[in-house]
């Protein structure tokens, strides 16, 4: 044999999941929404099903049509069944209170204000392209928040995706499908390393010791100071991956919306009288600023808190992996696209954002009931947590690397000295 040791074979991947007490066989089932079901193979997916499909009668019919599978109880990961029951109780209560009903008037007014602000920024581009670019970047960030609402079906099944395509595709030039594919996984496996795509900030930044190992020394030294500016450059990388996704997946309707986006802005800038230089300055400034704006507000609620295991319940991952800041403020809600009440949003992602403040007391009570953290803080405290998390993570990893290098050098010196001694003895 060429190899002394034979590699241990990986156990076969489970082909079942547990939903509402039934262990169902999904070996031959293909989820219409993509591969998100793969994240729950071999474990309880009840809460995830309720969050993503609790409103959809067709999904319930599909679930009941799946065959059951006999599984050894020893093969089912240990999870707190009381967490699952609590989530079911809360979801039922919130639906009975009407908190999942769409709020089209509030969302439409919000959206119209953003559209008017975009038009005003284009009109100002010839005279102050940088300032107008920051204005349109803020508007594009707000478009990101609005499409977020559509992507979570807050307008109901009939209009939500059209709402999302308008703000993400036409006004922002992005891909609604790419966003849903990535963001649904984020909700399903919040702050789980290797499964939550939003944690893929390496090799540039890291908030935890595991991912810090993939970041070079120079970045660890500066990441607390370069994080925000770098978001402006990072968004251009996303621009490429998003467009590639739409082409590879043959989402030609999304490609058409992207092309229409560029055509509309080029026409608007031309009508406003902007030169090519002013137009490019306006657009690139806006694109970079929206990356800073979106990344900053998202980071406040997620990046600096703990990572959670893949087998964590929905209740655990929500309370451990998210925080609230200025949660009682409606102004901060609209400023951040309601990312300031992230605990509530992760508890009920399809609930209209304007209703989330009404369930804060319920979420806090559930956290206390099960001894889980419910963290709410001020805006400044959240900023400090995020930036200090970068600084401390970088500092600790650099110290570990320095200690390892010192140890390696000491070993080398001792080895050389030992060799000299042995040589003298031989002589």
Automatic annotation (TrEMBL):
Q: Does the keyword Oxidoreductase apply?
A: yes
Q: Which InterPro entries match?
A: Cyt_B5-like_heme/steroid-bd (IPR001199), Cyt_B5-like_heme/steroid_sf (IPR036400), FA_desaturase_dom (IPR005804), Fatty_acid_desaturase (IPR012171)
Q: Where in the cell is it found?
A: Membrane
Q: Which GO terms describe its cellular component?
A: membrane
Q: Which UniProt keywords apply?
A: Lipid metabolism, Membrane, Oxidoreductase, Transmembrane, Transmembrane helix
Residues spanning the membrane: 105-128, 224-243, 255-275, 287-305
Q: Which family does it belong to?
A: Belongs to the fatty acid desaturase type 1 family.
Protein's name in the database: Cytochrome b5 heme-binding domain-containing protein
Q: Which organism is it from?
A: Strombidinopsis acuminata
């Amino acid at each position: 044999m060429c190899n002394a040791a034979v590699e241990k074979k990986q156990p076969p991947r489970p082909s079942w999941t547990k939903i509402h007490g039934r262990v169902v066989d999904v070996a031959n089932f293909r989820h219409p929404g993509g591969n998100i079901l793969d994240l729950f193979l071999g474990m309880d997916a009840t809460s995830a099903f309720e969050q993503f499909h609790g409103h959809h009668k067709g999904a319930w019919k599909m679930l009941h049509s799946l065959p059951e599978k006999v599984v050894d109880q020893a093969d089912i990961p240990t999870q707190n069944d009381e967490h699952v029951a609590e989530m079911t109780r809360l979801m039922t209560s919130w639906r009975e209170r009407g908190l999942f009903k769409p709020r089209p008037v509030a969302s439409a007014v919000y959206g119209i204000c953003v559209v008017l602000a975009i038009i005003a920024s284009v009109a100002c581009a010839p005279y102050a392209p940088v300032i107008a670019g920051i204005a349109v970047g803020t508007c594009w960030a707000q478009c990101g928040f609005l499409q977020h609402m559509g992507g979570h079906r807050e307008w109901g099944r009939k209009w939500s995706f059209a709402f999302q395509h308008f703000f993400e595709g036409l006004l922002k030039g992005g891909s609604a499908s790419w966003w849903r594919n990535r963001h649904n996984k984020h909700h399903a496996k919040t702050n789980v390393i290797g499964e939550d795509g939003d944690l893929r900030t390496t090799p540039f930044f890291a908030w935890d010791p595991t991912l810090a190992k993939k970041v070079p020394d120079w970045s660890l030294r500066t990441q607390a100071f370069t994080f925000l500016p770098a978001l402006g450059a990072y968004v251009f990388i996303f621009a490429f991956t998003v467009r590639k996704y739409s082409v590879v997946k043959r989402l030609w309707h999304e490609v058409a919306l992207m092309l229409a986006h560029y055509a509309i802005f080029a026409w608007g800038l031309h009508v406003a009288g902007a030169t090519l230089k002013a137009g490019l300055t306006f657009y690139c400034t806006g694109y970079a600023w929206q990356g800073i704006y979106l990344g900053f507000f998202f980071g406040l609620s997620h990046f600096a808190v703990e990572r959670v295991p893949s087998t964590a319940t929905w209740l655990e991952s929500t309370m451990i992996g998210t925080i609230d800041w200025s949660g009682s403020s409606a102004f901060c809600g609209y400023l951040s696209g309601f990312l300031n009440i992230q605990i509530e949003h992760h508890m009920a992602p399809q609930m209209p954002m304007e209703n989330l403040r009404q369930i804060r007391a319920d979420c806090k009570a559930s956290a206390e009931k099960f001894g889980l953290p419910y963290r709410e803080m001020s805006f400044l405290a959240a900023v400090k947590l995020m930036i200090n998390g970068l600084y401390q993570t970088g500092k600790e990893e650099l110290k570990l690397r320095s200690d390892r290098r010192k140890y390696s050098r000491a070993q080398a010196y001792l080895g050389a000295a030992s060799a000299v001694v042995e040589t003298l003895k031989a002589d």
